[in-house]
Fold this protein.
Amino acid sequence: MSEPLKAVVLAAGKGTRLRTEGVDLPKVLRLANGAPLLKYVLDALSFLPKQDIVLVVGYEGEKVRAAFPGYPHAHQCPQLGTGHAVQCAQSALEGYEGDILICCGDMPLLGRAAYEKLWETHRREGNVCTLMAGVANEPLPYGRIIRDEKGGFARIVEDKDCTEEERAVTELNAGVYIFNSTELWRALTTLRPNNAQGEYYLTDAPQWLRSQGKQVGVCAACTPTEMLGVNTPEQLAEVEEILKERGRAE
């Protein structure tokens, strides 16, 4: 693909709920099937050169940088949400005017094909923002993608904020996006920490862009399994077992 694309990988988390085992590592360096979570993400993004992938680090960021040398980085401190994390990466992308893929460093099951499908959809539809979605019939604690009366993107509603009707929606936000860089930086200036956590949520950016008449799309590029992130020892064990099964199948 000839159009420019760079990536921002959110990798600043401490992983507090993973620390019950006494392992003193940033979340993205926790091992699953013998490799750090972040390695799987970077392997899936290997269609981009290292210099085009910005790692947003935070807790013990020097360990992340040492484990993955050669990648540009930005530092997020304090950690004030996903929107704030992307804001921290802006200086590392100064002067760049292409598309920006934003993803999470703790989602090791999401494969290269899903990222590439998201990019292809973004380009084909001419969107300023395209969200990656997964469709799941079982209840999962992810934000729901709400459509408007014409079937277009309307907004994201977090699981804890869903009405009964919204909770029945099966199209889930995977937390992976591609933005036009100019529109992304504009949208980030509008974010406000008007929530219980006092954080700046990236999920507010697509809805704001839509309110400005910009084209926002959704691409159901991944499976419910690929959407799995790691926040607890139980989730780490689940992801590790899936990775082992994949290895046995290859």
Notes: The chain has a mean pLDDT of 93. The two ends are 28 Å apart (CA to CA). The longest helix spans residues 233-249.
